[in-house]
Amino acid sequence: MNPLTPVIIHKTCAFTLHISEPVETLKKLAMFFQDRHIPIDNLQMHRYRNGEATAIIHCQVEKDRIGRTVDLLEKLPGVLEVEMLK
After folding, report:
1. Tens of pLDDT along 17-54?
2. Rounded to whole angstroms, what are the CA distances from 13 to 25, 53, 59, 62, 77?
3. Cα separation of the two ends of the chain
4. Is the dihedral of CA 59, 62, 66, 72 positive or negative?
5. CA-to-CA distance for 32 and 36, rounded, in angstroms?
6. DSSP secondary structure string for all residues of 54-67
7. How far apart are CA 25 and CA 2, in angstroms?
8. What pLDDT does 9 receive?
9. What is the pTM assigned to this prediction?
């Protein structure tokens, strides 16, 4: 192994997202993670009677991309609130 070979460190993350229009927003979230090559390990969703939902997404993100990922998730249409669980 070459001592100058870059090593990518992934960190296990869980994002809790409060979302509106769950079906459409889940499509956008799936494309968001796919486009950024972030595999989703687990996704759980709890839908409320008012049409909103809470989605919990477990994934592994490169350590230096976590902050940017949170920023982009907050700007995604249909995402009302983002919390990263550590």
Report:
1. 999 999 999 999 999 999 999 999 999 999 999 999 99
2. 20, 20, 5, 10, 21
3. 32
4. negative
5. 6
6. EEEEEEEEEGGGHH
7. 43
8. 77
9. 0.85
